[in-house]
Amino acid sequence: MKNLVMTLLMAVLVTACSEEGTNQVQADLPVDKGSVAAGTGQSVTMQGGELPLAGEGAIAVGKALPEAMLSAADLKAVNIAAKGGKVRVISVVPSLDTPTCEEQTHILSEENNGLDQQVELVTISMDLPFAQSRFAKEAKISNMTFLSDYKGREFGNTNGLLIEPLSLLTRAVIVTDKENIVRYLQVVPEITALPDMPAAMQAARDLL
Q: What is the model's pTM?
């Protein structure tokens, strides 16, 4: 099972590396509007193959986003649950070096219709902070905060969003209000598909 998972992952990564340019948004990727539960005992799929999730699964609509320490671009620790007094759209991706994660990030950055002027846009992945900074520079994205869960996988474990066999975060979108309460959550069932980004952005807009 583990060998099959790694083979599928390598296929995804090879596809990503074969794309010309790092900021070419794909137009033919499917959108999955469904959602699954987070945490141990739950699972997502990658090209149909089941991938078990791990962690407490503490994230839930109507509850405060749990505390978890992440690494910022300067390697300083950031508590994702720290109240900043702003609505946030938190985009969770396995790796920025894949086409689906790249497009998800571009959609949030470039197709938010001015939402970035009123809410905080955040992307979380297992990519090293250096890789996240390089991606943002090459993609010319300056309206988004990138945070990495590479150091302790605390965000993935606390929220039940860790893909256990791959040690990567599963694909998800979270919207929190000004008091850090989760108001919208989609854990994408098939991680090679895009989340319903328009729905997440509308959920954030409805909180303003």
A: 0.89
Q: Count how many Cα atoms sit within 13 Å of the Cα of residue 5 in the half-sphere of its side chain.
A: 14
Active site residues: 101
Which residues, other chains included, contact 195 with Cβ-Cβ below 8 Å and sequence gap of 6+? 31, 32, 91, 104, 171, 172, 173, 186, 188
In a domain, 120, yes or no: yes
pLDDT of 144 > 70? The answer is yes
**In whole angstroms, what is the distance from residue 111 CA to residue 166 CA?**
30
Which range of residues forms the domain containing residue 141? 2-19+32-205
CA distance linking residue 157 with residue 141, whole number of Å:
28
Q: How far apart are CA 101 and CA 16, in angstroms?
A: 10
User: How many domains does one find in the chain?
Assistant: 1
Do the domain assignments include residue 25? no
Q: Indicate the pairing of strand 43-46 with strand 88-92.
A: unpaired
| Backbone φ and ψ of 147, nearest 5° | -130, 145
Cα separation, 136 vs 4, whole angstroms: 31
| CATH code for the domain of 163 | 3.40.30.10
In angstroms, the CA 95 to CA 17 distance is 12
Coil, strand or helix at 65:
coil
Predicted confidence (pLDDT) per residue in 101-110, tens digit: 999 999 999 9
| 82 closest CA partner among 38, 147, 25 | 147
Q: For residues 204 and 184, give the distance between their C-alpha atoms in angstroms, rounded to a whole number.
A: 8
